[in-house]
């Protein structure tokens, strides 16, 4: 009976890792095909009579120290913010 539990656990782990790899590859493909996905989303939005626009959020104020560099800038464009959030 213990052998069956061990065997079924190994199978479960194997399929979980296999699914993880499949989804990881799919996410990589989405990252590289962002322009095509946007065109497809605009087509679907036009078919459903929805305005294809990204929601705009208020820019948060962040206190900065006098010697802090400006390298940590927030993205202003909602489309580029979406692209960065999806690819990370």
UniProtKB/TrEMBL annotation:
Q: Which UniProt keywords apply?
A: Signal
Q: Does the keyword Signal apply?
A: yes
- State the superkingdom: Eukaryota
Signal peptide residue numbers: 1-24
Q: What is this protein called?
A: Putative secreted protein
The organism encoding this protein is: Xenopsylla cheopis (Oriental rat flea)
């Amino acid at each position: 009976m213990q052998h069956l539990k061990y065997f079924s656990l190994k199978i479960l782990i194997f399929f979980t890792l296999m699914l993880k790899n499949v989804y990881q590859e799919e996410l990589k493909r989405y990252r590289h095909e962002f322009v095509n996905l946007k065109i497809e989303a605009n087509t679907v939005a036009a078919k459903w009579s929805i305005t294809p626009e990204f929601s705009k959020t208020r820019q948060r104020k962040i206190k900065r120290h006098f010697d802090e560099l400006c390298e940590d800038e927030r993205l202003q464009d909602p489309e580029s913010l979406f692209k960065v959030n999806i690819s990370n």
